[in-house]
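re: ur question from the group chat, yeah i did fold both. here u go
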Amino acid sequence: MSANSSSTAAALALIADDMQGMDRVIAQRLKSDVPLVSQVSQYIIAAGGKRLRPALLLLMCGALGYRGEQRFNLAAVVEFIHTATLLHDDVVDESTLRRGRATANEAFGNPASVLVGDFLYSRAFQMMVEAGDMRIMQTLAEATNVIAEGEVLQLMNMHDASLSEDGYLLVIRSKTAKLFEASARLAALLAQSSPEVEKSCADYGQALGTAFQVIDDVLDYDGDVSEMGKNLGDDLREGKATLPLIIAMQRGTEAERNTIREAIETGGTANMAQIIAIVQNTGALLATRDAAAAEARRALNALQTLPQNIYSNALQQLASQLLERRF
């Protein structure tokens, strides 16, 4: 087990009982009179994953001293929204493998995946209304809308080899980091924290989510397939210009740029080995990890406003160890 795996495991062990509380809410709220809804929902939620977004909400609640029941409800809401985006994502990306097994669209077909994703979104909105707090509803409604915008933005950027670093970061901040940010902010709202603490929580979530995705994009060219549970080169196959490729194109020779450009524009992976070599030889992977490191430091800085306890220590570990992530 890597240092990063152990630090994540230690953080999750801290909230094991809370995660069980969330799981009870999930099981209860996934019930539907339509069998296929329950079947597809259970399939994707049973796939596991680190569940970092609800874990972040629950750790932040611990750090801020909030122990109310509503934390289970909102952790489940966050997981439902994330799961809905995964269902829709895999259809859009035509993915066949996630977390080492067939995606829901591969197992049940695209129509079922899209419609069950809609069910999860709408169930999440029913549940957030039950919190009876306009700020909570505003935070989640805005996050869901920004994520949808990020998805469309990414679709527009497909096969675009001229995408800039700023354009890439805009997609990440919208598509991935926004739900991390909302999860952390929700804890502050539940704890009725000061505006300063709320902002720090949101900043931490956004920075952590950005670092997480940047490292994820590194692993598409430098990961362990058996541990990642997805295929190397998936991003390139989908025509995504991620940060390792953007930097490699900035630093490479004209011939190397042309090789990467053609691969992005056609979604071709025939030259995958050559592209991995270019990305490594230009120092693009190291530069991308440096970009993730800058976000991790931003996350650590944001924690300074929070009370010091075992939960905030765990949040600190999550940010500092993220850089060693290998899958």
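okk and heres the other one u asked abt
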Amino acid sequence: MGSMSNETRPLTQTPWEEIDKRVRRVDEDRWISSRFAPAAERRALVALYALAYELVRVREAVSEETLGLIRFQWWREAIEEIEAGKAPRGHDVCLAIAEEVVAGRLKPGALQKLVDGYQLAFLDADRAKEPEGWLGLTAAHILSPVHNWAGDLQAVAPAYAAARRHASKAFGPIVSPAPKQLRPAIAHYRLRKLYCEGKTPNPFTKRFSIMKAMNTGEV
């Protein structure tokens, strides 16, 4: 009688550690907020933010409109294939998205709308049109599908984004405290106060500010 193998096999083919490190490097604000989410939802947030990075950096990677459209279409088709149950393409973010779609934490329709939004901003060469509000809503939905903070979120997200890229010194709207369950998706919006003052906060300052938002819901 043969002995049972002691070999352990990975539960996932997705290089989550590498993706997480990438999000931390390119989008530290959202990455810090995501640390407060439960483990499963944290992965979904990381997958979402990794996709957003791939989409937003099209404007940096190409200068020709046609080449940009090809990249957006590549992501659109990759998401369609995942929704159809096909094997994900060999891109680590595709692997991550596929896992989270299967788990029900990411919705292909929401991701397609994200692609559309970044494509529009690219075509119009206008970062103010990037779908910050939709990105925030999609992140919030991972944590709580039903909430009453959608209007506040859509109001504050563009203000945060404009302040972060130093396109505006306006603090933006005063909004109601965010529901506790949503805070890991939106606590970084509190950093708009520092950004609109022209400051570039260090990691410690960011963590302190985001921790305060987590405790109070005030962003």
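fwiw on the second one: The chain has one domain: 16-216. The CA atoms of residues 137 and 150 lie 7 Å apart. idk if thats what u expected
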